[in-house]
């Protein structure tokens, strides 16, 4: 079911990306087991933004969040788009309240090849997006934030914080809701997720309409 949802999500992501350049890689995202507040599992932590205290959002709950890397005439960009689930933590491995959120975030400034993946360096308010509460439709503006070394986001096949794994795709990076790159909240705000590379969108044509219909019936 999760892979079928990814197929449908990828078809939409591919259409939006194709207008702005060549899609050079797409990845299905999931929660990272090494998160500091796990359980519950999550791929995005937004303390003080989603809730006054600790708050996490799961990428694996809906299983439709896609990272797309695009090359537009030599300018690289990274987009993360999908549906997250979570909210304020209760301190006992669960939530005090939950909601579904739509994430659409793009890194377009300072994106470069990093040997076994891609990295974003240097703060820019253009590396931004929105998190929309799908219950209330309230939007939160998000911006990539640089750390002391200037790193904003990294997506590498290096098994980061996965024991005895030096190859799996892992994304990590820092987030703020301030357009000047400041961070007035306590706690932590960062991506930490795993990813699986999926076939190029054109490859899904080989599945045929019957395959897609079958996936919909199983849902």
What does this structure look like?
The protein has 219 residues and is mainly beta. It has one domain (2-218). It has 2 helices and 13 strands, in the order H-E-E-E-E-E-E-E-E-E-E-E-E-E-H. It has helices spanning 2-18, 208-218, and strands spanning 22-31, 44-46, 55-58, 66-72, 75-88, 99-107, 111-113, 117-121, 128-133, 139-145, 151-157, 169-176, 189-197. Strand 9 (128-133) and strand 10 form a beta hairpin. The longest helix is centred in the N-terminal third of the chain and has 17 residues, at 2-18. It is globular, with a radius of gyration of 17 Å. The model is unreliable at 1-5, 11-18 and 203-219 (pLDDT under 50).
Largest sheet: 13 strands, antiparallel
Proportion of beta-strand residues: 35-45%
* Distance between the ends: 6 Å
Number of domains: 1
Query: How does the overall form come out from the CA principal axes?
Result: globular
Average residue pLDDT: 88
Oligomeric state of shown chains: single chain
Strand-and-helix sequence, N→C? HEEEEEEEEEEEEEH
What is the number of beta strands? 13
**Number of helical segments with 4 or more residues:** 2
Low-confidence stretches: 1-5, 11-18, 203-219
What Rg, in angstroms, do the CA atoms define? 17 Å
């Amino acid at each position: 079911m999760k892979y079928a949802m990814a197929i449908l999500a990828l078809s939409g992501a591919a259409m939006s990306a194709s207008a702005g350049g060549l899609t050079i890689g797409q990845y299905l995202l999931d929660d990272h087991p090494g998160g500091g507040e796990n359980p519950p599992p999550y791929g995005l932590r937004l303390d003080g933004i989603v809730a006054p205290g600790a708050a996490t959002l799961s990428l694996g709950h809906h299983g439709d969040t896609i990272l797309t890397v695009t090359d537009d005439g030599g300018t690289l960009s990274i987009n993360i788009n999908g549906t997250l689930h979570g909210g304020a933590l209760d301190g006992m491995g669960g939530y005090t309240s939950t909601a579904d959120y739509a994430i659409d975030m793009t890194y377009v400034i300072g994106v470069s090849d990093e040997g076994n993946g891609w990295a974003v360096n240097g703060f820019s308010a253009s590396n931004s997006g929105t998190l929309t509460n799908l219950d209330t439709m309230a939007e939160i503006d998000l911006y990539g934030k640089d750390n002391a070394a200037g790193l904003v986001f990294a997506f590498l096949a290096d098994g980061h914080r996965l024991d005895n794994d030096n190859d799996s795709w892992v994304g990590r990076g820092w987030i703020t809701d301030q357009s000047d790159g400041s961070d007035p909240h306590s706690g932590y705000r960062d991506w930490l997720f795993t990813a699986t590379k999926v076939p190029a969108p054109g490859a899904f044509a080989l599945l045929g309409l019957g395959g897609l219909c079958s996936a919909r019936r199983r849902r």
